[in-house]
Structure formats: structure tokens, C-alpha cells
Specification:
The chain has 92 residues and is mostly helical. 53% of the residues lie in helices and 0% in strands. It is built from 6 helices and no strands.
């Protein structure tokens, strides 16, 4: 198999950003997707990564695509994660 270009996984940074920008606590996120607060904290710290079903639930909760949830790099893009189906143009 060819060495495919791999994207950097930025999910832990994106989870923190999305939770805070939605003014939610760890407990609120955990309750919405039916996991423990400790699981959400571990995902945000980078200690583990949510499974596919939890990624989908988190993407739905925050109204972003799973791809953006996992791979979006706010530092490189200089914009925040766009809502699902919307795209922001980067400032010049």
C-alpha cells in the first residue's frame, strides 16, 4: 500500500474549543452523548480518542462534520471550525 498523505489528528484541541465556545461543561457534554465526564476529560487531554460512534455524536452535538472534528487545525487555518455544511473564507 502506498504511503498516503496523512492528516494530523487534532480532535483533543477541537473538543476543547467546541465545548468552550458552546459554553458547555464536561458534564453537559457527557450527558448529551451518554458517556462519563471522565471519558470526555480523557479525550480533551489527548489521553484517548473517542470511538467512531462517539465522534459522530460529538459532531452532531456541535453541528460540525466528523472530518472537521477530527482533523481541523485552527492554528493552520486561522479560522474556527465552520458549522456542518457551511464554509468560512480565511481572512487575507
Amino acid at each position: 500500500m502506498k504511503n498516503m498523505n496523512r492528516k494530523n489528528i487534532n480532535i483533543h484541541k477541537n473538543l476543547i474549543f467546541l465545548r468552550k465556545s458552546n459554553h458547555m461543561t464536561l458534564e453537559q457534554v457527557a450527558d448529551h452523548i451518554n458517556v462519563s465526564r471522565q471519558a470526555v476529560a480523557k479525550w480533551e487531554s489527548g489521553g484517548s480518542i473517542p470511538d467512531l460512534l462517539n465522534c459522530a455524536a460529538l459532531a452532531d452535538l456541535y453541528d460540525v462534520s466528523v472530518d472537521d472534528l477530527v482533523y481541523f487545525d485552527g492554528g493552520a487555518e486561522k479560522v474556527s471550525i465552520a458549522p456542518k455544511g457551511k464554509h468560512f473564507l480565511a481572512p487575507r
